[in-house]
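Async update (no meeting this week)

Hi team, since we skipped the sync, here's where things stand on the single-chain job. The sequence we agreed to prioritize is pasted below, unchanged from the tracker. I ran it this morning and attached the output directly underneath so nobody has to dig for it. Comments welcome in thread, and please keep replies under the output.
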Amino acid sequence: MTRSLRLVAILGSTTQLEVFMKSLATWLLLVLCLLLCVPATADDLYDNGPTNGNEWAYLVNFGSVVSDTFTLNNCVGLPWDPGCSISGMSFAAWLFPGDDYLSAEVLITSDEFGGTTYFDQVVNFTSSDCVTNGYGFSMCRETGQWTEFTLQNGSYWLNLQNASVPSGEPVYWDENSGPSLASQNSVGTIPSESFTLLGTSTTVCWWCYTTPEPGSSLLFGSGAVTVFAFLGLLRRNLF
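Output:
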Protein backbone atom coordinates (compact mmCIF):
# COMPACT_ATOMS: atom_id res chain seq x y z
CA MET A 1 0.00 0.00 0.00
CA THR A 2 1.40 3.37 -0.93
CA ARG A 3 2.01 6.03 1.73
CA SER A 4 -0.82 8.20 0.42
CA LEU A 5 -3.29 5.27 0.67
CA ARG A 6 -2.04 4.42 4.13
CA LEU A 7 -2.53 8.08 5.09
CA VAL A 8 -6.13 8.02 3.82
CA ALA A 9 -6.74 4.78 5.69
CA ILE A 10 -5.41 6.28 8.89
CA LEU A 11 -7.43 9.49 8.62
CA GLY A 12 -10.60 7.78 7.48
CA SER A 13 -11.74 10.06 4.65
CA THR A 14 -10.61 12.60 2.08
CA THR A 15 -12.20 15.36 4.14
CA GLN A 16 -10.15 14.39 7.17
CA LEU A 17 -7.07 14.30 4.98
CA GLU A 18 -7.75 17.85 3.83
CA VAL A 19 -8.16 18.97 7.43
CA PHE A 20 -4.91 17.26 8.31
CA MET A 21 -3.06 18.90 5.44
CA LYS A 22 -4.38 22.33 6.46
CA SER A 23 -3.24 21.66 10.02
CA LEU A 24 0.16 20.59 8.73
CA ALA A 25 0.46 23.82 6.71
CA THR A 26 -0.46 25.84 9.81
CA TRP A 27 2.18 24.04 11.88
CA LEU A 28 4.83 24.60 9.26
CA LEU A 29 3.95 28.30 9.04
CA LEU A 30 4.24 28.57 12.82
CA VAL A 31 7.62 26.89 12.74
CA LEU A 32 8.80 29.26 10.02
CA CYS A 33 7.66 32.28 12.03
CA LEU A 34 9.56 31.01 15.06
CA LEU A 35 12.71 30.60 13.01
CA LEU A 36 12.46 34.09 11.53
CA CYS A 37 11.92 35.88 14.84
CA VAL A 38 15.56 36.00 15.89
CA PRO A 39 16.47 39.73 16.07
CA ALA A 40 19.45 41.34 14.38
CA THR A 41 22.58 41.92 16.45
CA ALA A 42 24.15 45.38 16.58
CA ASP A 43 27.73 45.50 15.31
CA ASP A 44 30.59 47.70 14.29
CA LEU A 45 30.56 46.27 10.81
CA TYR A 46 34.01 47.54 9.90
CA ASP A 47 36.61 49.36 11.99
CA ASN A 48 39.72 50.75 10.32
CA GLY A 49 41.64 51.03 13.55
CA PRO A 50 42.18 53.63 16.27
CA THR A 51 42.42 57.36 15.71
CA ASN A 52 45.94 58.73 15.41
CA GLY A 53 45.25 62.44 15.76
CA ASN A 54 48.77 63.78 15.36
CA GLU A 55 50.09 62.23 12.14
CA TRP A 56 48.26 63.93 9.28
CA ALA A 57 44.78 64.50 7.85
CA TYR A 58 43.30 65.04 4.38
CA LEU A 59 40.92 67.70 3.14
CA VAL A 60 37.32 66.56 2.44
CA ASN A 61 35.77 69.84 1.21
CA PHE A 62 36.51 72.53 -1.39
CA GLY A 63 36.41 69.86 -4.12
CA SER A 64 38.61 67.30 -2.38
CA VAL A 65 37.36 63.72 -1.99
CA VAL A 66 38.90 60.98 0.16
CA SER A 67 38.05 57.36 -0.61
CA ASP A 68 38.81 54.37 1.66
CA THR A 69 38.06 50.68 1.17
CA PHE A 70 36.17 48.49 3.61
CA THR A 71 35.27 44.80 3.51
CA LEU A 72 32.17 43.11 4.89
CA ASN A 73 32.64 39.43 5.66
CA ASN A 74 30.32 38.76 8.61
CA CYS A 75 26.93 39.44 7.01
CA VAL A 76 24.47 36.62 7.64
CA GLY A 77 20.79 36.00 7.03
CA LEU A 78 18.68 33.94 4.68
CA PRO A 79 21.09 31.49 3.01
CA TRP A 80 20.35 32.80 -0.47
CA ASP A 81 20.63 36.50 0.46
CA PRO A 82 23.00 37.29 3.36
CA GLY A 83 23.35 40.99 4.02
CA CYS A 84 24.36 43.66 6.52
CA SER A 85 22.12 46.63 7.34
CA ILE A 86 24.26 49.78 7.10
CA SER A 87 22.93 52.52 9.37
CA GLY A 88 25.74 55.02 9.93
CA MET A 89 29.41 55.74 10.41
CA SER A 90 31.83 57.53 12.68
CA PHE A 91 35.17 59.08 11.79
CA ALA A 92 37.82 61.36 13.27
CA ALA A 93 37.82 64.92 11.93
CA TRP A 94 40.30 67.75 12.31
CA LEU A 95 38.40 71.01 12.69
CA PHE A 96 39.28 74.61 13.37
CA PRO A 97 38.52 75.49 17.03
CA GLY A 98 34.90 76.49 17.51
CA ASP A 99 33.52 74.29 14.72
CA ASP A 100 31.27 71.80 16.48
CA TYR A 101 28.72 71.02 13.78
CA LEU A 102 29.61 69.09 10.64
CA SER A 103 27.81 67.75 7.60
CA ALA A 104 29.35 65.83 4.73
CA GLU A 105 28.34 63.91 1.65
CA VAL A 106 28.89 60.19 2.16
CA LEU A 107 29.04 57.83 -0.79
CA ILE A 108 29.54 54.06 -0.82
CA THR A 109 30.64 52.84 -4.22
CA SER A 110 32.03 49.78 -5.96
CA ASP A 111 35.19 51.56 -7.14
CA GLU A 112 37.49 54.34 -6.09
CA PHE A 113 35.55 57.63 -6.50
CA GLY A 114 32.87 55.94 -8.61
CA GLY A 115 31.53 52.81 -10.24
CA THR A 116 28.20 51.55 -8.91
CA THR A 117 26.80 53.88 -6.22
CA TYR A 118 25.09 52.02 -3.36
CA PHE A 119 24.58 55.05 -1.14
CA ASP A 120 24.84 58.83 -1.62
CA GLN A 121 23.55 61.20 1.03
CA VAL A 122 24.48 64.40 2.86
CA VAL A 123 24.76 63.30 6.49
CA ASN A 124 24.65 65.45 9.63
CA PHE A 125 27.30 64.43 12.14
CA THR A 126 27.44 64.90 15.91
CA SER A 127 30.79 65.87 17.41
CA SER A 128 32.09 64.24 20.60
CA ASP A 129 35.34 63.60 22.49
CA CYS A 130 36.97 66.72 21.04
CA VAL A 131 40.59 67.37 22.00
CA THR A 132 43.23 69.78 20.72
CA ASN A 133 45.97 67.96 18.84
CA GLY A 134 49.60 68.90 18.32
CA TYR A 135 48.77 71.01 15.26
CA GLY A 136 46.25 73.15 17.13
CA PHE A 137 43.19 71.59 15.49
CA SER A 138 40.13 70.42 17.40
CA MET A 139 40.08 66.68 16.72
CA CYS A 140 36.59 65.24 17.20
CA ARG A 141 34.80 61.94 16.84
CA GLU A 142 32.01 62.55 14.29
CA THR A 143 29.03 60.17 14.28
CA GLY A 144 26.23 60.19 11.72
CA GLN A 145 23.15 58.03 11.16
CA TRP A 146 20.98 57.41 8.10
CA THR A 147 18.10 55.21 6.97
CA GLU A 148 19.33 51.63 6.85
CA PHE A 149 20.18 49.96 3.57
CA THR A 150 21.63 46.52 2.84
CA LEU A 151 25.01 45.46 1.46
CA GLN A 152 26.16 41.91 0.90
CA ASN A 153 29.56 40.53 1.86
CA GLY A 154 32.27 42.06 -0.29
CA SER A 155 34.64 45.01 -0.69
CA TYR A 156 33.50 48.61 -1.20
CA TRP A 157 34.79 52.19 -1.18
CA LEU A 158 33.67 54.77 1.40
CA ASN A 159 33.93 58.33 0.06
CA LEU A 160 33.76 61.62 2.01
CA GLN A 161 33.34 64.94 0.22
CA ASN A 162 31.59 68.33 0.38
CA ALA A 163 32.07 68.61 4.13
CA SER A 164 30.67 71.77 5.69
CA VAL A 165 31.02 73.57 9.02
CA PRO A 166 29.34 76.85 10.12
CA SER A 167 32.58 78.85 9.83
CA GLY A 168 33.18 77.70 6.26
CA GLU A 169 36.68 76.55 7.21
CA PRO A 170 38.42 73.44 5.84
CA VAL A 171 37.55 70.00 7.24
CA TYR A 172 40.12 67.21 7.39
CA TRP A 173 39.82 63.43 7.83
CA ASP A 174 42.34 61.93 10.27
CA GLU A 175 44.98 59.64 8.81
CA ASN A 176 45.65 56.53 10.89
CA SER A 177 47.31 54.17 8.36
CA GLY A 178 44.74 51.46 9.02
CA PRO A 179 44.29 48.33 6.86
CA SER A 180 42.13 50.04 4.22
CA LEU A 181 43.40 51.20 0.86
CA ALA A 182 42.86 54.93 0.37
CA SER A 183 43.33 57.84 -1.99
CA GLN A 184 42.48 61.50 -2.36
CA ASN A 185 41.37 62.80 -5.74
CA SER A 186 43.94 65.61 -5.76
CA VAL A 187 46.86 63.64 -4.29
CA GLY A 188 46.51 60.00 -5.35
CA THR A 189 47.29 57.05 -3.11
CA ILE A 190 47.50 57.95 0.60
CA PRO A 191 47.54 56.11 3.94
CA SER A 192 44.02 55.25 5.07
CA GLU A 193 41.82 57.12 7.55
CA SER A 194 40.15 56.57 10.91
CA PHE A 195 36.53 55.39 10.57
CA THR A 196 33.99 52.82 11.75
CA LEU A 197 31.01 51.60 9.74
CA LEU A 198 27.89 51.07 11.87
CA GLY A 199 24.94 48.73 11.41
CA THR A 200 23.76 45.19 12.02
CA SER A 201 24.76 41.77 10.77
CA THR A 202 21.28 40.74 9.62
CA THR A 203 20.28 37.60 11.51
CA VAL A 204 16.85 36.18 10.72
CA CYS A 205 17.29 32.42 11.14
CA TRP A 206 18.45 29.97 13.80
CA TRP A 207 21.10 28.39 11.58
CA CYS A 208 22.97 31.69 11.04
CA TYR A 209 26.34 32.27 12.63
CA THR A 210 25.67 35.32 14.81
CA THR A 211 24.97 34.39 18.43
CA PRO A 212 21.33 35.25 19.24
CA GLU A 213 20.33 37.38 22.20
CA PRO A 214 18.97 35.60 25.33
CA GLY A 215 15.34 36.25 24.42
CA SER A 216 15.84 34.85 20.95
CA SER A 217 17.57 31.77 22.37
CA LEU A 218 14.53 31.07 24.52
CA LEU A 219 12.29 31.59 21.52
CA PHE A 220 14.32 29.21 19.41
CA GLY A 221 14.37 26.62 22.20
CA SER A 222 10.60 26.62 22.53
CA GLY A 223 10.27 26.50 18.75
CA ALA A 224 12.62 23.55 18.48
CA VAL A 225 10.70 21.61 21.14
CA THR A 226 7.48 22.27 19.24
CA VAL A 227 9.02 21.11 15.95
CA PHE A 228 10.42 17.86 17.35
CA ALA A 229 7.23 17.05 19.26
CA PHE A 230 5.17 17.54 16.10
CA LEU A 231 7.54 15.44 13.98
CA GLY A 232 7.40 12.66 16.56
CA LEU A 233 3.60 12.69 16.55
CA LEU A 234 3.53 12.69 12.77
CA ARG A 235 5.90 9.74 12.59
CA ARG A 236 3.86 7.67 15.04
CA ASN A 237 0.65 8.31 13.15
CA LEU A 238 1.91 7.83 9.60
CA PHE A 239 4.63 5.23 9.88
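Quick observations from my side:
The domain at 41-201 is CATH 2.60.120 (Jelly Rolls).
The longest strand covers residues 114-132.
Reply here if anything looks off.
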